[in-house]
Amino acid sequence: MKKLLFICLVLLSTKGFSQSFLNRFEFGLKAGANYSNFTNTDFATDPLVGFHAGATVAFKITDNFLVQEEFLFSSQGAKIKGDANVFGNNDIKLYYISVPFLAKYRTNFGLYIEAGPQVGMKAKEEVKGLTFGEFAKKLDLAAAGGIGYQSPIGLGIGVRYIYGISKVGDFDIANIKTDFRSNVAQASIFYVF
């Protein structure tokens, strides 16, 4: 009888612990616009408008402090200015599967700040007239930081800046440096359920 009572207590406490553990997770969907450009280039560029969309998962360490990971499909790149350079007057569009890993502090009334590293794996690139192989490296490392607001029903908005750490270029053309970086400003809407 004592063993049966002990087993029942263990099962009840395990069930309560697992439910409270699962309640610490937040899942969501997000989408928005990107405004990206290359910095430190040998060729003139203008910003390019793109998009991002995907899923989020966060683990609440406390009621206000979370660790959030996202899985996003993101487009970025730049508009090349001038016909005199090797790229012509084209848009360079790079598509990444981006995975930011962010530390997030959210106040009790919904305002939040976030920061952390981001890894992007190149899924596709569109560079018209490219005859020398790949334009961009397969991996893009960056640092991300942002602010936003999440309402009590889970609907929210946010802005984020992503500063490129790794070099983008993966080509070898005389007189053109490949050590330029990608920088992206994002505006998002999201829903957490």
From TrEMBL:
Q: Which UniProt keywords apply?
A: Signal
Q: Which InterPro entries match?
A: Beta-barrel_OMP_2, OMP/PagP_B-barrel
Checking Pfam families in the record gives: OMP_b-brl_2
Superkingdom per UniProt: Bacteria
The organism encoding this protein is Chitinophaga filiformis
| Name the record gives this protein | Outer membrane protein beta-barrel domain-containing protein
Signal sequence bounds = 1-18
Domain (Outer membrane protein beta-barrel): residue spans on this chain: 17-168
